[in-house]
Model the fold of this input.
Amino acid sequence: MIGHEMYIKLTKCEAAVTVLHILVGEGRLSKTDLKKFFNKAMASSRYVLVMEWNADSVDFKDRKPGELFTKDELIATLDAGNPEQFEYCQGTKDGQRNMLALYRGHFAPTFPHYYTCAVPY
Done:
């Protein structure tokens, strides 16, 4: 697991799976910067899992508009078409607090490249 500051500086981070974990929701990245991270992950990963908080969740009714993504905004920002799989995860007050979007990346790892590169908030 590496932080977002280190991840963007790496020239190479090949992985079977890269997880981008609530980088916008926690205020670590702008929505525009998330696209840069996502593109880097797509180029060097077999799969990319993007987890962000859902602006439509009751759990975030007190957040300012624009701070979080809706499902449609997340997919549009990533600009990679529809994910292979999309799921909502249970929250405190409803069943859609978190959004998980799984994309197939452009890198095909071979043995021994079975790493997971997690970029947490």
Observations:
- Residues 31-44 form the longest helix (14 residues).
- The helical segments are 4-9, 31-44, 71-78.
- The chain has a mean pLDDT of 88.
